[in-house]
Design goal:
- Helix content is about 45%, strand content about 5%.
- By secondary structure, the protein is mainly alpha-helical.
- The protein starts with a strand and ends in a 5-residue tail after the last helix.
Length: about 200
Amino acid sequence: ARVNPAVPAQNVKEFLAHVRANPGKFNDGIGGGQAELDFGSMVKLANLNMVGVRYSGGPQLITGVLGGEVHIMVTGLASAKSFMDSGKLRAIAISSGETFPGLVGAENLSLMSDEIPGYRGSSAWWGLMGPAGMPEPIVRKIAVACATSWRAEPLRARMRELLILPAAGGTAELRDRIIADVENTKKQVQQTGVTPR
């Protein structure tokens, strides 16, 4: 979660206290997609009275926060990093369900779920997939090649520059991740009432 620097909160706990003390006076930026579900779920679970302001996309949303039209937004670290570095935006929490140790810009940030029981946001991830029924020896060979690649320092350094953390895992871990994310998205749709557009 990122806020305009004019918002006095330095972390989620302080932000929740400010919003609760000023019902209806804080605007949250809505850019659509998964971030809308993540933020909408947070607002519902934390029982906040905020005014949602809809934007047509991420760049417009960032402009809205920078200009003070909205106070807070949920966005990826990569899209906000340059604004955070310049002091134009301040990160107050990680909305996904996991911390990112060693990722510049995410150090010392707490999880929203630490302050909002039952909350689980999402995070972007990439997985390598093949056709159903792929022979197990080929799957293993590709998995070993990928695991070896992730350990190569030039690739790790480049991924850090792009604010990406490699996570080694196999077929079972990827399957479990997909299932957990689908279930969480279903829950968020029920919580927020957001419908596909």
